């Protein structure tokens, strides 16, 4: 079996790769007017699985697919929270809220 890597911004395609034995190796973020997440997968035969997915020949267990999709969402939102937290750590107004008036 040939090991390779693929990158996708499609969370459903990513869940499919997980179902087919792919490993999520990284999530990257980029700005293009809005923030876009990109999933990097490694594993055997990902190119073949990608072709099957694009051609409509992809078959997976629906329960496994749902669990894989939820897993990717959990990881994505955790990464987003880490990114947002890091962005606001250097903001003085966020650290010191004494300037805000309680109503």
Task: Describe this structure as you would to a colleague.
There is one protein chain. The protein is α+β, with helices and mostly antiparallel strands. It is 49% helix and 24% strand. It contains four helices and three strands; from the N terminus they run βαββααα. It has helices spanning 11-19, 46-55, 62-88, 92-95; strands at 3-8, 23-31, 35-44. The chain has a three-stranded antiparallel beta sheet, with helices on one face. α1 crosses α3 (62-88). The longest helix has 27 residues, at 62-88. The radius of gyration is 18 Å and the shape is elongated. 16% of the residues are buried. The model has no long low-confidence stretch (mean pLDDT 86).
How are the SSEs placed, and which strands pair?
Elements: E1 3-8, H1 11-19, E2 23-31, E3 35-44, H2 46-55, H3 62-88, H4 92-95
Strand order of the largest sheet: 1-3-2
- What is the gyration radius calculated from CA atoms? 18 Å
Order of helices and strands: EHEEHHH
Q: Give the rounded overall mean pLDDT.
A: 86
Please tally the β strands and state the result: 3
Helix content: 40-55%
Strand fraction equals 15-25%
Which regions have little confidence, pLDDT < 50, spanning 5+ residues? none
How many helices does DSSP assign?
4
Shape: elongated
Separation, N- and C-terminal Cα atoms:
64 Å
